[in-house]
Write the structure tokens for this entry.
Amino acid sequence: MQPSTAPRRRGRPPKHLAEPRQDTRSLLIRTGVAVLTEKGYSAVGIDEILRQAAVPKGSFYHCFESKEAFGQALIAAYADYFARKLDRWLLDADTPPLQRLRRFIDDATQGMERHGFRRGCLVGNLGQEMGTLPESFRAQLEGVFLDWQARTSACLAEAQRAGEIAHHHDCVALAEFFWIGWEGAVLRAKLQRSAAPLQAYASGFFQLLTT
Amino acid sequence: MQPSTAPRRRGRPPKHLAEPRQDTRSLLIRTGVAVLTEKGYSAVGIDEILRQAAVPKGSFYHCFESKEAFGQALIAAYADYFARKLDRWLLDADTPPLQRLRRFIDDATQGMERHGFRRGCLVGNLGQEMGTLPESFRAQLEGVFLDWQARTSACLAEAQRAGEIAHHHDCVALAEFFWIGWEGAVLRAKLQRSAAPLQAYASGFFQLLTT
């Protein structure tokens, strides 16, 4: 961006000066999340994202120091978006706890259908690619899984208190199991371009809960 | 390769004329499988594989028409190698059927440990990357999963006949569930650089079998 020649004013800067960078940053993050959920990190150059977002290269480096910093921002943005999605379903007090988990699964399935099963999970894609990614992504991605597991585990514990799951179950272990396998189901749904693997996985998981 | 000026002889060609291409092809496949189980397809150029294998570029195109044809050969070679590995464990008539499956899982876990959890599953890696891969890979990869599932399902059916699994279970569905989730476990083990996700997944799966 070129330096402005407008006289400096007190207080909040006018909108056209304050917001462009923030808007560009948001646009790059939205575009980056969309592209990386479909193609992963390694197959995508910054240029492809800039082209899709119609943002010049100079602006990218005003918003992000490097492709690595951009990747970290994408993981953080996706984690935040997904945590809110999980909360929307799993904290819905009007619905019995296990039904909440079913609704989350249905919503995730519809999300994949809407994008023709081309888009998977950004965290799963990057986890799979970890062998070629900046090492700083590892703890960040693992932290996202732990966060999703904690939200899921809280819902399963509610189900247990409500008598929907037997008391011998360890809800933390069940939530971990769910997320380990769910990423495999998302991978397979992308490969088959079908909801069947998501449904097959959910069906087995709910059968496990009845043991 | 340069055309030979040696006089043509009857019968089997001498070893130095007949074998180089086959040897080079095998070497490229071995190297390619090792690199792709670690890094996937998109992040790897042919040049990296040629460098590792110390094979000149001209020789590559004597063995394979294109990177796509090479990818297909790698999937086929990995599928073959893995089918033999599965058979070694799952057809071992001296061992009770469920114990065979446990031994396969232990062997796969040790395999990942041996490579410092850097190498995952070539078929899982490519399934995850399907959004950017040649479309011809899709049916081939899905076929490999169906093959592994059939071998696993046959072992589970033996377990059922031996009374190790209750009769209400559908062994085909259980084998599908196993492979859907197992790929997620391999992904997570690579991310965590730990056997824990493989063990957690196996533990949940065997618990499901006891329902």
Residues 67-209 of chain A form a domain with the Tetracycline Repressor; domain 2 fold (CATH 1.10.357.10). Chain A touches chain B through 46 residues (CB under 8 Å). DSSP finds ten helices and no strands in chain A. The radius of gyration of chain A is 20 Å.
